[in-house]
Amino acid sequence: MTDFHLPVLLDAVVQSAAGATRAVDCTLGDGGHTEAMRAAGATVLGIDRDPEAIVRARQRLGTDRIQYLYAPYASSEALTAIAGFRPEFILLDLGVSSRQFDDEGLGFTFRRGAALDMRMSRSGPTAADLLNTALAGELAGVFAEYGDEPRARRLADEIVQRRAHAPLAISDDFVNAIRRVLGPRSGPGDFARLFQAVRIAVNDELRGLALALPALRDSLAPGGRLAVISYHSGEDRVVKHLFREWATACVCPPVQPICTCRGRPLGRLAPRKPILPSTDELAANPRARSARLRVFQVADDA
Questions:
Q1: Could you tell me which of 153, 235, 162, 151 has the C-alpha nearest to residue 186?
Q2: Under DSSP, is residue 294 helix (H, G, I), strand (E, B) or coil?
Q3: Which domain holds residue 150?
Q4: E-assigned strand segments in 193-263
Q5: 226 and 287 housed in the same domain
Q6: Is 73 exposed, middle or buried (0-12, 13-18, 19+ CB in 10 A)?
Q7: Is residue 135 one of the residues assigned to a domain?
Q8: Using one digit for the tens of pLDDT, what is the confidence trace for 41-98?
Q9: Cα–chain-centroid distance for residue 158?
Q10: Which tens digits make up the pLDDT trace of 157-167?
Q11: Residue where one domain finishes, among candidates 150, 179, 202
Q12: Which distant-in-sequence residues (6+ apart) come within 8 Å of 60 by Cβ?
């Protein structure tokens, strides 16, 4: 028996990377995608902002045709390394790995007694710091934008009232605030959605994604592919919007009579629609239920 977690949409990723001799796994995790891409013939640059992920993957996979980099994928260090690697395939598997979610010490879970941490890189402000110091308006924005919560302001006000008496420190404190506002029928789905919203804010995930995607596209060799697995509607909106814009010949305002933009698409969607987990994969890994893979292939003359 092993504690290795099978990667999401593995077959689809391998098919998308077919023919690539140089690939980048921007979110290494346990290294499952990297292992499969290496087996298919690619030399891989594996990147992760979690130092423990780098250590585990290196111990399991070794260094034969795999290079490792400890850094957030959106950092200047990572983007410079990726550009120098000149890959033919780049993968982003967003969100939290199964291992991170199962480790209660990291605070990604709403299981009772878990610390409100949620930092992917083990540095910087924690979820507790955010919940205990952010203004009510900022918290409401996090819950509304990242958690699609219609009672975002009420929840923010509830948290501000509670922290005036005692700081929020563990998962129970946040869960109790959610229950107070959403009512007794609130349950795991609501907790997961709002914990995820706080995690996205703590790690500045959507801003980093939007900033990194154009740089990753430009790092690809002509005809290369950029693949992104998302699990959150906000993540998917960022990816879908940019991929569609890049696949459009003209991005000038509709009222503009003459095209002054690039006048040609930067590549194409490959395929046009997102790839979803199969029924068999969902049966084996229910956490894959919200996953969707989008792939953009840059033009051959890029």
A1: 151
A2: strand
A3: 122-202
A4: 225-230
A5: yes
A6: buried
A7: yes
A8: 999 999 999 888 999 999 999 999 999 999 999 999 999 999 999 999 999 999 765 5
A9: 29
A10: 999 999 999 99
A11: 202
A12: 4, 30, 31
